[in-house]
Amino acid sequence: MHARTVIAVLASAIMLFLLGISPARADIYRYVDANGVVHFTNAPQYTEKPNKKSWAFYRKELRPGAPRSGGGLIVHSYHDIIRQNARAYRLEEALVKAVIKAESNYNPQSLSNKGAQGLMQLIPETARLVNVDDPFDPAENIRGGSNYLRLMLDQFNGNLDLALAAYNAGPNAVQRHGGIPPYEETRNYVQRVRRYLEHYRRSGDTVL
Fold first, then answer.
1. Which residues pair with 61 in a beta bridge?
2. What is the pTM of this model?
3. What domain range includes position 102?
4. Which residues are tagged catalytic?
5. Is the four-CA dihedral 96, 99, 102, 105 of positive or negative sign?
6. pLDDT tens-place string over residues 32-73
7. Rounded to whole angstroms, how far apart are CA atoms 99 and 152?
8. How far apart are CA 121 and CA 100, in angstroms?
9. How many domains does the chain have?
């Protein structure tokens, strides 16, 4: 890592310590300066140069010990939760990340006007189907969303486009139309997830 990048990270951590803010409880943001040096911070509101608007969301950090896996293991970041559920439901990690990005942009409190909730935007009916009690809990939501995504892939014989369309519009709509429904929202959704999927395949774990 570039020396100036390390300095930027350490400076942010020290600032947060002095302010009594735990870095483990904050989102992480990044900024690329004119020289191509990447800087990280978890408190852009306290950063003067560059200003707050210049920092882009990089990844989410959860409260220590908040989400737990089925075996009781403490999970410290969305990366861990995604990896565990991708393995459990035989999904590509990049695909789970892409769906979360398209659905909520990694906002665990996201609530749509149709009642879809949390990171993977589970509607109450879907949440009940995959045994999610609290859709706003990141660990539960990602587990439930990954489970449902696997169900859709199995139902449509591994056809990713149809599975994504079913995730967005419901499997009945896909069956009724014999393919991706002619809904602008659904067609755009499938294309958007596809773009994010390619992005995450290239970037791996480096960006959420």
1. 77
2. 0.65
3. 78-203
4. 103
5. negative
6. 766 666 666 666 665 555 565 567 765 554 443 444 433 333
7. 13
8. 8
9. 2
